[in-house]
Amino acid sequence: MLEFFVIGTPAPKGSHVGRMINGRVAIFPTSSGALKSWERAVKIVASAAAPKVPIDSPVSVELEFVIRRPKKPKFSVPATTPDIDKLARATLDGLSKIIISDDARIVALKVSERYQRDDEPTGCLISVEENI
Question: Can you tell me the distance from the alpha carbon of 101 to that of 105, in angstroms, rounded to the nearest whole number?
Fold first, then answer.
């Protein structure tokens, strides 16, 4: 089993938006620069924890996002934007070809998010386990 923590501000994988250009629809990503920084952080930490060859068999992945607590949270857990599925997409893309050969190898996925505790960094705890 591989387990590592990526320090940083988790960023969501954005959606796409269509715009008419010269009578045709062009599709553009809505992702921000924060996404590139987050994916880069995931790739750097994943590379340090990676096996010599990316895992090319079924795997289970667990992601626990640690999010900064707002001054006046609406809920006791971070049940607000960014969406947890978009955070997972961005993070899993950072693991592809480094930890696992392809994200199609993921057969089980557990994703959770919580507010950071005192003096704890924001980021994501990532666990990857082969399902042989």
Answer: 8
